Amino acid sequence: MKKAQKGYKQLTLSERVQIYALREKGYSMEDIGKEIGRDKGTVSRELARNRHPSTKAYEPVQAEEISRKRGVKQRTKAPLKNPEVFLYVRKKLWEDGWSPEQIAGRLSIDIPGERITAEAIYQYIYGKGKKYKLQRYLTRRHKRRRKKTGRSVHKEKRHSRIPGAISIDKRSTKAENRVQTGHFETDLMEGPRDGKTALSVTVDRKTRYTILSKVPDKTADNKQKVLQFTLKTVQSVAKTQRPVVRSITQDNGPENTHHKQVSDALDVDIYFCHPYHSWEKGTVENMIGRVRRYIPKGTSIYPYTTQEIQWIENKLNNTPRKCLNYLTPNEVMEKEANTYKFRRYRKHKEELSQLLPVNRCTST
After folding, report:
1. How far apart are CA 202 and CA 226, in angstroms?
2. How does residue 230 score in pLDDT terms, banded at 50, 70 and 90?
3. By three-state DSSP, how is residue 342 classified?
4. CA atoms within 13 A on the CB side of 270
5. Is this prediction's pTM over 0.85?
6. Residue 130, SS3 per DSSP
7. CA nearest to 249, candidates 229, 270, 224, 276
8. Who contacts 31 (Cβ-Cβ below 8 Å, separation ≥6)?
9. Domains in the chain, please, with CATH?
10. If you average pLDDT over residues 261-274, what whole number do you get?
11. Can you tell me the distance from the alpha carbon of 12 to that of 17, in angstroms, rounded to the nearest whole number?
12. CA–CA separation, 350 and 348 (whole Å)
């Protein structure tokens, strides 16, 4: 009687011969397992899986060949062993900057009949692909995989310092549950601490449709002008009387103190997160993290031209999202906007640039 093995190893030909001989003598699965040092479940699966397909008889040499062929087939069928899937994953990861979840979810749409899991892509990136430093193509660029941890929450809810601020607690359930288009979140993405120029990021909660606009400084006056102009542009292209912009959610930064002018101009309610609760506008926070792939943290916004920012906006709106069943924000917005279009034209960009003149030199 052999001792049970630690860790699983494939059965050898000699073990299969023993199984055959002991089975012929009338040994039970449990007794055979004890004799060869294997679990009885291993013996049971071996006799069930590696029998002759027509006679159903178990023969050691034939069982060895069936097992070998199955192993070759499984290794060949592994998702990243398929050249078409591998090239798709490489292109979307390296060239388009998609996450493993986006690649896995979109694969079956772009290549019907093919499947891969996000975990398989992550294992490749942090396994065999580690020598190629593939993690640099991920959003966060972590050198090692990190465990998901819970997030601490401030129990105390302080009052907003913004005059006349309406609490996010009063925001409609349709906005909260993302069942209606037109509920936007907005925030400023800053460059270096001593930099003046910033990027206004505005996102629709349901479709994740994103609008990026450069602002010359972080003052309330310029933030108001940019936000008011961009959302009014969205409203102006509507082909119906239905409201396009229904609500806006923002934080308690000093750049948002002119919210009343924006609210009156757009005829919408503006809601404010609780102080130090930035996750309450998690949609725009997540989007800022995505923008950081193109404009890294600490990089000045000043050198970026309007065309370059528009390019980033188009990339974001044409990238599939897991939360959208791997459709892109543009695709979902197109379905939502069957009676009006959320499309900005070049003339509106030119008007905005005249309203807020900023540097247009090419970035280096």
Report:
1. 10
2. confident
3. coil
4. 25
5. no
6. helix
7. 270
8. 22
9. 13-77 (no CATH), 79-137 (no CATH), 166-355 (3.30.420.10)
10. 91
11. 9
12. 5
The vertex-212 CA angle with 148 and 177, nearest 5°, equals: 50
186: number of Cβ within 10 Å = 24
Q: Give the residue carrying structure tokens 């979307």.
A: 92
Torsion of CA 184, 190, 191, 194, to 10 degrees: 160
Q: Give me the phi and psi of 70, to 5 degrees please.
A: -65, -40
**What's the order of all strands across the beta sheet hosting 183-190?**
166-167, 269-272, 247-250, 183-190, 198-204, 210-215
232-251: b (≥16 Cβ within 10 Å) or e: ebbbeebeeeeebbbbbbbb
Which residue, chain included where needed, has tokens 């065999």? Answer: 128
In sequence order, the β-bridge partners of residue 166 are 271
Question: Percent of the chain, pLDDT > 70?
Answer: 82
CA 77 to chain CA centroid, nearest Å = 26
Asked whether 51 and 34 are in contact (CB, 8 A), the reply is no
Per-residue tokens: 95: 């060239």
277-335: per-residue pLDDT in tens?
888 999 999 999 999 999 998 899 999 999 999 999 999 999 999 899 999 999 988 88
The token duo for 338 is 């069957």
